[in-house]
Amino acid sequence: MTKASTSPSVVRATAMPEGIMTVPVIIVGGGSCGLTAGIALRGGGTECVVLERDATPTGSTSLSSGFIPAAQTRLQKSLGIADTYELLIDDVMNKAHGQAPRPLVEAYVHAVTEAIDALEAKGLPFEIVNGFLYPGHSVMRMHTMPEKTGATFMTRLEQLAQQDGVDILTQALVTELWIDEQDRILGVGYRRPDGRLEHLGCQCLLLACNGFGGNPQMVSELLPEMAQAVFAGHQGNDGSAILWGRQLCLRMADLDAYQGHGSWAIPHNALVTWAFIMEGGVQISALGKRFSDETGGYSEAAIHVLAQPGSIAWNIFDDPLLELLRGFPDFRDAEALGALRTAADVASLADLIGCDRSALVATLNEIAPGHTDRLGRTFKRSLTAPYHAVKVTGALFHTQGGLDIDAEARVLRDDGLPMPNLFAAGGAARGVSGRGANGYLAGNGLLSAVGGGWLAASVIARQLNKA
Ligand SMILES: Cc1cc2nc3c(=O)[nH]c(=O)nc-3n(C[C@H](O)[C@H](O)[C@H](O)COP(=O)(O)OP(=O)(O)OC[C@H]3O[C@@H](n4cnc5c(N)ncnc54)[C@H](O)[C@@H]3O)c2cc1C
Predict the structure, then answer these.
(1) Whole-number Å distance between alpha carbons of 230 and 393
(2) 54 within ligand 1 shell (Cβ under 6 A)
(3) 184 Ramachandran zone, left/alpha/beta (phi>0; psi -120 to 50)
(4) Exposed, middle or buried by CB within 10 Å (0-12, 13-18, 19+), for 380?
(5) Do residues 114 and 456 lie in contact, with contact meaning Cβ atoms separated by under 8 Å?
(6) Is the CB of 242 under 6 A from ligand 1?
(7) Residues near 406 by Cβ (< 8 Å), separated by ≥ 6?
(8) What is the sign, positive or negative, of the torsion defined by CA atoms of 86, 92, 97, 102?
(9) Phi/psi of residue 249, nearest 5 degrees
(10) CA nearest 392: which of 277, 289, 270, 300?
């Protein structure tokens, strides 16, 4: 029995220790990327083992809203929603200012549709989020569970994975990657709760262990603008994939890219969905002034909010928008925690925010149907009393940079050549959001996780079948 280190390390060897079992595929991480890949592999008859550090696979996926963008799905067609792969590819590329790797975007977009159609055929009750469009999306294409939560998506994925015979080993923190001189992954070492280090060999390895949002040191180094921001994702996003990649001199991409969110209720730590903005709500600083065109996107809004006095803003909306928001469980949670405040008129709203009344009156007067303000936002409607307010800050949701991969989810070496049997997808790999915070199109996270898991599984199965 060996005591294991908890930090990711690389072991160079010619073979795994004698007597160690080998499986066709090991998947590191049991979030939506890992479980989707497992289900796809088992569906094609390939054995795989998911190694998950937690007692139950949850990951950031469980904390998410669980909205997955996909085009030309069976569900969209049955609802008469006209969408195409090309339209979604263009939407992703446009939001990323052309900086996303187009072949990867194309591969993810096709794979996510295959994944959603297959998961639906296996009984997952997908619905389409309706009532509003996220910034940058051309049509209604967010696929979700009826409960509209990532937690229920994960619960169902796990049930399906178990039912399909995917081996999920929980409380198994992978710390070691074993690799030979030809850069072929031999297997992994993982730590058990009692400190024991166990080993498993594999023919192919998929890293599905997400990014580095839960590693404050890496966030300070790579995303200094978010160093002080709240991290709303899973603590297991500790940067393992990148730390292994650095030791193996693998190529990285878009390490300064991330998904922020400008509407994180504090001190309640709950999400207020951006739907209220898209239907006419606004964000106002503690000085009673608007400070950005909020319809640009919630990710970049995180930086705008953090730049305001006290790093906070107030989400302001009225009764019809409150009704819309109450359709989202995240918001209902925030309301139940006491995040919602209501003011009968402008004067009491100013008192609530603690700002100058005349400043707030001037701000609200600008919100008028058809009016385009100095920030470039054109309003559909005015806001009418009573006003509702939620105090929010800018949060880091997850990182979008990581191991560089090709359009088959193969991890690339520093010279651009693919590793022979190492794959990465979801938050462990580079994303499709370009650089910084403003290239993130709503849903890119789960597009990369669910689409990427499906894509990687199909390439791995093909490779193993050829061998
Ligand atoms: C509040 C919030 C809301 C969001 N809403 C959305 C949304 O609606 N739509 C969208 O597209 N995106 C959303 N996102 C982003 C989305 O959650 C992520 O992009 C997505 O969940 C990534 O999936 P994943 O499988 O790559 O990672 P995860 O779901 O985080 O899974 C990774 C797993 O790997 C495990 N792991 C890590 N390291 C190891 C190791 N060394 N050994 C073993 N196991 C390990 C972790 O424990 C974890 O279970 C949201 C994020 C947040 C925080």
Answers:
(1) 8
(2) yes
(3) beta
(4) exposed
(5) no
(6) no
(7) 103, 104, 412, 418
(8) negative
(9) 55, 45
(10) 270
Compute the distance from residue 210 Cα to the ligand 1 centre, in Å: 6
Rg from Cα positions in the chain: 23
pLDDT tens string 360-419: 999 999 999 999 999 999 998 999 999 999 999 999 999 999 999 999 999 999 999 999
Both structure tokens of 202: 């594999």
- Distance in angstroms (rounded) separating the CA atoms of residues 230 and 399: 13
Domain architecture of the chain: domains with CATH: 9-256+400-466 (3.50.50.60), 258-396 (3.90.700.10)
The preferred substitution site among 36, 61, 244 for testing ligand 1, maximizing ligand atoms within 8 Å of CB, is 61
How many angstroms separate the alpha carbon of residue 300 from the centre of ligand 1? Answer: 20
> Residue 78 C-alpha to ligand 1 middle, in angstroms?
30
Cis ω before 386 (30° cut-off from 0): yes
Q: Is 402 in the pocket of ligand 1 (CB under 6 A)?
A: no
Q: In whole angstroms, how far apart are CA 216 and each of 79, 135, 182, 237, 285?
A: 44, 29, 34, 10, 27
3-class DSSP state for residue 12? strand
Fill in the DSSP letter of residue 225.
Answer: G
433 lines ligand 1 (CB under 6 A): no
> pLDDT tens, 120-134?
999 999 999 998 899
